[in-house]
Structure formats: C-alpha cells, structure tokens
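Suppose a colleague, Dr. K., hands you the sequence of a protein chain of 269 amino acids and asks what its three-dimensional shape might be. Before reaching for any lab equipment, you can write down a predicted structure in token form. Begin with the sequence itself:
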Amino acid sequence: MITLGWQPYQNDHEDANGQFEMNWEYDSALKTADRHAFFKYMVKSIAEKHGLRATFMPKPFSHLTGNGCHAHLSLWSSKTGKNMFVDSRGELGLSTIAYNFLGGIMHSADALTAITNPTVNSYKRLNAPPTLSGATWSPNTITYAGNNRTHMIRIPDAGRFELRLADGATNPYLLPASLLIAGLDGIKNKRDPGKRLDIDMYAEGHKAKNARRLPLNLLDALRAFEKSTVLKEGLGSEFCSAYLNLKHDDWNKYSRHLTDWERETTLDC
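The predicted structure, expressed as tokens, is then:
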C-alpha cells in the first residue's frame, strides 16, 4: 500500500482472533472504490502465499466479532477544494450540509442495508449478541452520536463522520454510490438527523425509545430497498430490478436450506 501511494496510516489487531483493521488516506469516491476492490484481492493473494486464508465474511464465527467495512465520509468542493462538512461553529465541527447529508443516510438506512450488508450472513453481524469481548462493535439501530462506537454513525472529528453499518461483503463500488445518493438526497431535502444520542447503545439502548431498528434479515432489507424511491431513482430501475432478483434468489436458496438447529429443535414435533 505504501508503494502504491495509498498512504496507509494505521494497522491494528482488532477484537477477534486473527482479525485486523487497515486504514489508508481518503481520496475521491471512485479512486477509493478501486483501492477497496484491489485491497481485497491483495490481502487474499498474500495470505494464500503463506498457506493462510483471508476472509471478509461478515460473521465467520458466532462467538467472535464480525468483519465491518467502516467508511469515513466527507464532501469536498470541486471548485474551491474545501471540505464542505467543516464548520468550526457547528456542533462537533460539522456544517449544516454535513448534518443534512448524515440525515439523508439515516433516512434511507433501512434500504441501504441491502447494499451495505448484502448477504444472509450479514445480519448475523448486525443483530448479534455480545461476543467474548462484551461488545459486537456493530450497530442494530439507526442512530448517531459523537465519538461513540456503539452507534451506526459516529462523529470522531470535525469535518467527517464514520458510517459503521457496512460489512466486508459489500460491493466496493455500490457502497460509495449508494451513500452519495442517500447523502445528496439529504442535502436536497434538508433532512434533519435529529438529536444525537450520547449513550452506550449496547448497555443503554433500551432508553432510545424512538430509535428505528435496522432490518433483522436480508429479506427485510430487500423489501425496504424495493420501497426506496431515493435509491431507485439514484441507482436506476434497471439495476435495482436485477439486484433484487439476484438477492431474492440468494434468500430463497437460504430458506430452502435445512440447518442443524432446525433438526435439534423441531425433530420431535
């Protein structure tokens, strides 16, 4: 990554066994998507050379933390080169445009999960019980906060925010495209994200009475995606129809699959 000029700045051993988080410098949406796609290929190839197998599967082990794909978002003017999300007078250093963009993502969040969390397995990560570490580090409600990793969106610094929704199975190109569509809709319609929740959602989530829940499974996400005029207009009806057909086929194949749990719990019916 250094040789390729990506300016990687942080590599951490993460919560689960053999799990790592790697960060590189931000760039334009398309260039970042290209890097994201190549990164996955690169990691798998290097692992294979050492007799290992790397996976970005959202929840490969039920008792360990899943694999997220956290995106840090900011919007830059092509005319002035300035970050449009920065406002030193704004709450937590974010501008009104930033909060409208954030509001747009929250408005479309349930439909976005069909893109950001595109597999049956994705929802084992989103709605998981606490792991051995005591936290899943993934959201289950459509909420935002300051520098707080228990929410879907956190604001770690002025001029940007982090979306913690997506997982390792997301398509590197559909992810930024759908986030831009939802965010720009938020700016266009001046969507208000509401007040942030400065609570620990794992320990105090029951206090967030009006917080919308994220879809519990892929089928719920696909139904929300199908109803979303924002994403349908932005991504195009032809793409949305093809994508829904593909993902409904995944769901139907999963639904026809018998599991050990079913046999263990219903064989004596």
